[in-house]
Amino acid sequence: MRALDAGIIVCGECHKLEYLREGEVQHCTRCGGRLHARRPDSIARTWALLITAAILYIPANVLPIMTVSFLGKGAPSTIMGGVLELIHADMLPIALVVFVASILVPTFKLVGIAMLLYSVQRHQPMSAQQRILMYRFIEWIGRWSMLDIFVIAILVTVVNFGNLASIQANLGAAAFATVVILTMIAAVTFDPRLIWDNTFEEDVEEQEATAQAD
Which of 8, 104, 129, 181 has the least C-beta neighbours within 10 A? Predict the structure, then answer.
């Protein structure tokens, strides 16, 4: 049984429990926030953010992310190009960190959120526990995707010695930062309670089918 079936909803702002009054526009008695049984248009908004992030993911990896100049010479490099340069420079631990944070994590987030949305909409055979664990992991790991952007921001600020040495951010960095931000927002707009609603509906359908069979 869900809390919603008992007429209880939670404030999305301060998490205070309130009793649902049908046919009324309700506001939280503590913080005044608008109350909803579920986040409005959660699936549609999450899909919109996810598709936009997926489109920007291409230029984020194809366009140069930064240009490192030394003694007036330098060439722009992409994320993968930077990883390969680190490998060639025998900096395998740093290359691994950059590869995981900049390639694997964003890819996992895009695929993971898409799987959650698809499983909820199409009633795929994934348990609620599996879905919620995936959601929590996506929400937790999202912050580490900004590692590259933080590093670039620090380097651009610190390494600025004119013709001797300088680092400049390129369009790829802006595209990558946008991808990270959009996926983080997508994880927030997705309402995890839909996972349990989906499971509850499946259990009800199974019980009805069993009753009819008997």
Answer: 129
Q: Give the number of other CB atoms < 10 A from CB of residue 157.
A: 9
In the chain, which residues have pLDDT < 70?
1-6, 68, 70-74, 124-126, 143, 145, 148, 152, 155-156, 158-167, 198-214
pTM: 0.74
Cα separations in angstroms, 174 against 31, 105, 150, 171: 36, 17, 12, 5
Instruction: List, in order of start, the domains of the chain with CATH numbers.
Output: 1-37 (2.20.28), 40-200 (1.20.140)
Contact 60, 120 (CB under 8 A): no
pLDDT at residue 8 in the model? 81
CA dist 56 → 63, 94, 162, 194, 197 (Å)? 11, 25, 32, 27, 32
Closest CA to 109 of 214, 203, 182: 182
Q: How confident is the model at residue 56, as a pLDDT?
A: 94
Half-sphere exposure of 140 (CA within 13 A, CB side): 6
For 170, residues 6+ apart whose C-beta sits below 8 A from its C-beta are 63, 64, 65, 66, 67, 76
How many other CB atoms are found less than 10 A from the CB of residue 142?
Answer: 22
Looking at residue 208, what is its pLDDT? 47
